[in-house]
């Protein structure tokens, strides 16, 4: 059976077992992967997998079963288990499935399945590292080609299909010179086809160059309050955190988000527009075309000109809180560019840090954050000077968003996000 | 229980080969603010093969498990190994043979029948009700009940075949409250056991003492103050010391990361910690008792032995796979493990602990004039340089040898081998922590532990 037939069979099985409403996602995939450790190839990996996610609602109660088998006996068994667990669960009016609006297939126009191209790019990458960056050690590298066919279907008649292949690399690296070594850094990107050298993707070459420069570091000798320029490589400190901790289902349902009642309020400097952008091709190419709830995805402003416009609620979170659904991707986001050139931003910083990676705790609901600035550089009197070591930065994320003093004109895309450099004032550095 | 379709195919092995069939079963129920928002069960199973040729591996996996699918993954893995060997031409000799390997290591933990999802549902619901009824000043609460079973069947061309079963039962509780000025604060506690979920988690009241403590800690944290940033004298709770042993030292002495540039490469045989510090990655038995997550044979078929990492402050060794052991000229000790059937074995920690010392815990606290007692960490990360960072979700001031006010969330950081040299007191107790997962390309169940430590630590704050 193909995924569409499997999905249909699964919905029938759930209905026969007693589901009032149901949905399922059936997927077949093949993944090829090349691994490099310590600058040498180590492994070629090929995985064939199936997945089937069944969701049933019975009497307002919900159950979910996940298996990686597509034969009828396994589906029947999983459907029965799904119904059984739903019946034991708690009823909740917020459990629901997507209504039928428009069925659609999303087929990638050109599926190349170019394994040879993936290998060539991987080999080219490690050769370029050896030639151009002899002090760089690739701690771990993987390049992948994923080819998949998937169907979402539900008992309201919604059916979405997708077929695609996707290319990706991820590299973790350090610079080493004798006994001197740097912090690790990591980077990666996704591609439609393996036509671009990996080393030229996004900020990758810059990060490798900066790793080498970080072999000699300097300590920040005294605590100061200054400026931090957050680079596009440092995605999690602000954007991932904001999303996960203050906009998502859990934070809004629980009420632990400080923004729970702030829709329409100014929560950041007016220069900031932070939005989900799964459809923003070619900068973002990994965005899904429909959500796991069964809605077609869209681009959506979370914060526009500093004003909180939307949460990122799924169907359940929306029904539970009475606030609108996001119908977007949680992982594909962008920050709109500002009007200051990066060079100008650095030039106007008297004392601060260029932050490439932040190793810190999750801020928690209070928004207080502290952690170590990694792979980062000191900015003094308008110029980037030395790489820094063992430097902590502390701030409150809500305050920091209101203290954005500049956003760069330039942005960097890696296939998943599209981000500028963002300048935050009033950050404690120690 | 998995049928053995693997052993019969050993006659086809012409190069170093591993065949593994595996099933991971997971059940999970999530109660969020009284709502059952998660109620899911999953089963992922299949078979994989890994073949080594000329120092390079080919790996393949498939979701079906049958005599035919075993042959298929074996063939694809061999093709991948051939492709890599022909294109990369490393030309390494065959891997060294395992000495004195037992033929097959059978089940140490009997496989039990699965439990219905309703067991977790009923438990999570009753625990949530218990919390809602007893702890009145919470603004929100989350309860998670989770059961994970991993069964593996392994057939190898060299070493030990094995059949293993690793069950883990976990309950997590998050409490949230608000400070007087409306700022949300949270705390979390995990409870974990090896075995069937319903063997350990029967009545919510059995967790009452620990939940009372969690609630008290949260109420203290509600009134918490900002820590003063800088280098401070700190006492680390055993839970935090366990995280330290795993993140700050353990990862830096994994041989693949040593080859990747870890600072540990230059420190073998050197004093990297106070003489009071010894640290071991135990295979299956520690201090005369079975470890929380015992490993008898790893997923490369290597019989598991303890890996001594630090002895009286001196760095003694690394953790290895067969491949890195060959490169370092040492014997592998069974650290190569894979999480799912579609994962290749990686060097992973098993039961990693700093050994208990001789000091009494109360004396550690009493000895600090002005510092912090740090208890809970939210997450942590280690670096190739030995630098580490933990978020600290719960801590108290220590003033004149006595515990003072709670502190707000902060972060501690340092360089492992420098910080460990400042350890001057080690408590005589040991606490294991097994509720978390380690992330390194794949997830992995690990256990970690340690005593309380007194040391100098860089603490964040305002």
Description:
The complex is a heterodimer of chains A (430) and B (462). Chain A has 430 residues and is of the alpha+beta class. Chain A folds into 2 domains: 211 residues, 2-Layer Sandwich (PmbA/TldD fold); 206 residues, no CATH class. Chain A has 9 helices and 22 strands. In chain A, strands 9, 10, 15, 16, 17, 18, 19, 20, 21 and 22 form a 10-stranded mixed β-sheet that branches. In chain A, strands 1, 2, 3, 4, 5, 6, 7 and 8 form an 8-stranded mixed β-sheet that branches. In chain A, helix 1 crosses helix 2. The longest helix of chain A has 18 residues. The termini of chain A are far apart. Chain B has 2 domains: 216 residues, 2-Layer Sandwich (PmbA/TldD fold), CATH 3.30.2290; 230 residues, no CATH class. Chain B starts with 15 loop residues before the first strand and ends with a strand. The chains are: A alpha+beta (430), B alpha+beta (462). Chains A and B meet through strand 2, strand 3, helix 2, strand 5 and strand 6 of A and strand 2, strand 3, helix 1, helix 2 and strand 7 of B.
What keywords describe this structure?
heterodimer; A: 430 residues; alpha+beta; PmbA/TldD fold; 2 domains; 8-stranded mixed sheet; B: 462 residues; 7-stranded mixed sheet; 9 helices; 26 strands; 20% helix
Counting copies of identical and different chains, the oligomeric state is: heterodimer
Instruction: Characterize the main sheet of chain A.
Output: 10 strands, mixed
The interface involving the most residues is between: A-B, 76 and 84 residues
CATH class of the largest domain in chain A: Alpha Beta
Give the number of DSSP strands of chain B: 26
Helix share of residues of chain B?
Answer: 10-25%
Count of individual domains of chain A: 2
Helix content range of the residues of chain A, please?
10-25%
Number of helix segments of chain A?
9
């Amino acid at each position: 059976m193909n995924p569409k037939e499997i999905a249909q069979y699964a919905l029938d099985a759930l209905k026969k077992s007693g589901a009032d409403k149901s949905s399922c996602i059936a997927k077949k995939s093949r993944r090829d992967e090349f691994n490099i450790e310590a600058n040498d190839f180590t492994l070629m990996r090929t995985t064939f997998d199936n997945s089937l996610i069944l969701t049933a609602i019975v009497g307002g109660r919900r159950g979910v079963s996940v298996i990686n088998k597509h034969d009828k006996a396994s589906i029947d068994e999983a459907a029965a288990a799904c119904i059984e667990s739903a019946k034991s669960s708690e009823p909740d009016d917020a459990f629901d499935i997507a209504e039928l609006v428009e069925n659609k297939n999303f087929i990638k126009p050109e599926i190349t399945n170019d394994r040879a191209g993936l290998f060539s790019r991987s080999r080219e990458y490690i050769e370029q590292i050896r030639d151009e960056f002899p002090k760089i050690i690739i701690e771990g590298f993987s390049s992948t080609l994923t080819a998949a066919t998937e169907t979402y279907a539900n008992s309201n008649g919604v059916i979405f299909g997708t077929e695609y292949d996707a290319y990706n690399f991820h590299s973790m690296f350090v610079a080493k010179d004798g006994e001197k070594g740097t912090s690790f850094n990591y980077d990666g990107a996704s591609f439609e086809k393996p036509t671009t050298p990996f080393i030229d993707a996004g900020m990758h070459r810059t990060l490798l160059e900066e790793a080498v420069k970080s072999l000699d570091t300097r300590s920040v000798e005294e605590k100061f309050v200054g400026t931090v320029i957050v680079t596009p490589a440092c995605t999690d400190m602000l954007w991932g955190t904001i999303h996960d901790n203050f906009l998502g289902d859990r934070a809004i349902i629980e009420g632990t988000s400080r923004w729970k009642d702030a829709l329409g309020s100014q929560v950041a400097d007016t220069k900031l527009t932070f939005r989900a952008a799964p459809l923003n091709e070619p900068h973002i190419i990994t965005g899904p075309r429909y959500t796991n709830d069964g809605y077609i995805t869209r681009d959506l402003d979370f914060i526009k000109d500093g004003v909180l416009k939307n949460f990122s609620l799924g169907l359940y979170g929306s029904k539970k809180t009475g606030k609108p659904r996001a119908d977007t991707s949680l992982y594909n986001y962008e920050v709109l560019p500002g009007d200051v050139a990066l060079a100008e931003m650095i030039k106007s910083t008297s004392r601060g840090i260029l932050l490439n990676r932040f190793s810190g705790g999750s801020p928690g609901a209070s928004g207080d954050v502290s952690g170590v600035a990694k792979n980062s550089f000191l900015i003094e009197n308008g110029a980037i000077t030395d790489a820094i070591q063992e430097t902590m930065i502390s701030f409150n994320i809500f305050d920091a968003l209101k203290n954005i003093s500049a956003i760069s004109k330039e942005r960097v895309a890696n296939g998943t996000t599209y981000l500028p450099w963002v300048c935050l004032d009033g950050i404690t550095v120690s | 229980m998995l049928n053995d379709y693997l052993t019969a195919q050993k006659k086809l092995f012409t190069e170093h080969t591993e065949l593994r069939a595996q099933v991971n079963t997971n059940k999970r129920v999530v109660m969020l603010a009284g709502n059952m928002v998660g109620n899911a069960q999953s089963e992922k199973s299949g078979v994989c093969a890994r073949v080594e040729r000329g120092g390079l591996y080919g790996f393949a996996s498939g979701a079906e498990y049958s005599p035919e699918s075993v042959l298929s993954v074996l063939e694809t893995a061999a093709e991948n190994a051939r492709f890599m060997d022909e294109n990369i031409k490393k030309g390494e000799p065959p891997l060294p043979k395992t000495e004195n390997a037992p033929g097959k290591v059978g089940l140490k933990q009997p496989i039990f029948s699965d439990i219905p999802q309703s067991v977790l549902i009923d438990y999570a619901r009753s625990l949530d009700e218990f919390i809602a009824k007893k702890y009145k000043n919470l603004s929100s609460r989350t309860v998670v009940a989770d059961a994970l079973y991993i069964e593996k069947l392994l057939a190898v061309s060299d070493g030990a075949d094995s059949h293993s079963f690793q069950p883990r039962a976990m309950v997590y509780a998050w409490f949230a409250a608000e400070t007087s000025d409306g700022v949300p604060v949270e705390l979390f506690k995990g409870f974990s056991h090896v075995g069937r979920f319903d063997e350990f988690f029967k009545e919510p009241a059995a967790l009452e003492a620990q939940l009372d403590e969690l609630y008290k800690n949260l109420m203290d944290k509600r009134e918490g103050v900002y820590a003063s940033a800088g280098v401070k004298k700190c006492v680390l709770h055993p839970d935090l010391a366990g995280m330290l042993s795993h993140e700050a030292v353990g990862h830096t002495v994994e041989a693949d990361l040593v080859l990747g540039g870890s600072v540990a490469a230059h420190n073998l045989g050197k004093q990297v910690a106070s003489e009071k510090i010894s640290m071991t990655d135990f295979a299956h038995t520690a201090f005369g008792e079975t470890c929380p997550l015992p490993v008898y044979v790893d997923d490369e078929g290597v019989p598991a032995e303890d890996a001594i990492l630090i002895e009286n402050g001196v760095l003694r060794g690394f953790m290895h796979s067969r491949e890195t052991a060959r490169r370092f000229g040492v014997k592998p000790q069974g650290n190569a493990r894979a999480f799912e059937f579609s994962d290749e074995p990686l060097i992973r920690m098993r039961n990693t602990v700093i050994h208990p010392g001789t000091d009494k815990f109360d004396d550690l606290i009493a000895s600090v004039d002005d510092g912090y007692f740090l208890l809970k960490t939210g997450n942590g990360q280690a670096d190739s340089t030995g630098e580490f960072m933990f978020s600290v979700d719960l801590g108290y001031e220590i003033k004149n040898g006595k515990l003072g006010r709670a502190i707000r969330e902060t972060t501690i950081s340092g360089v492992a081998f420098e910080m460990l040299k400042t350890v001057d007191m080690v408590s005589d107790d040991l606490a294991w922590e097994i509720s978390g997962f380690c992330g390194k390309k794949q997830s992995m169940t690990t256990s970690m532990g340690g005593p309380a430590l007194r040391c100098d630590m860089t603490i964040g704050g305002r």
